[in-house]
Write a structure and sequence with these properties.
single chain, 107 residues, mainly beta, four-stranded mixed β-sheet, 7% helix
Length: 107
């Protein structure tokens, strides 16, 4: 269970497949970010299609799944975001807007 509180937060993920992290208070208005850099293997910003690496399912909440190498359809659910903070946005939209971070390693 992750909660960033008020202000800009960066939720960082370094391991895929160790459970589904829940984010309680993600806010686009507060310029919160999802850093998945360390979950990706071989992704090149500006070259690769982020849609091959990230899948987003919308409903009453948001589930973000990652395919670490972008090959095939073996997506693993990585995070569950309470609410609909950025509902309807594609992975490319999230990347373009800076919500999705793929080039700042945490390790």
């Amino acid at each position: 269970y992750l909660a960033g509180g008020t202000g800009a937060d960066q939720f960082g993920f370094t391991v895929l497949g160790d459970g589904l992290d829940q984010i309680a208070d993600f806010s686009v208005a507060d310029t919160d970010k999802l850093n998945i850099t360390d979950l990706l293997s071989g992704f090149v910003l500006g070259v690769d299609d982020i849609g091959l690496f990230v899948s987003i399912r919308y409903g009453a909440s948001i589930v973000v799944s990652v395919n670490a190498d972008g090959v095939g359809s073996d997506f693993t659910a990585a995070m569950y975001i309470n609410g609909t903070a950025f509902a309807g946005q594609s992975a490319q939209n999230l990347l373009d807007s800076g919500i999705l971070v793929v080039n700042q390693t945490l390790l």
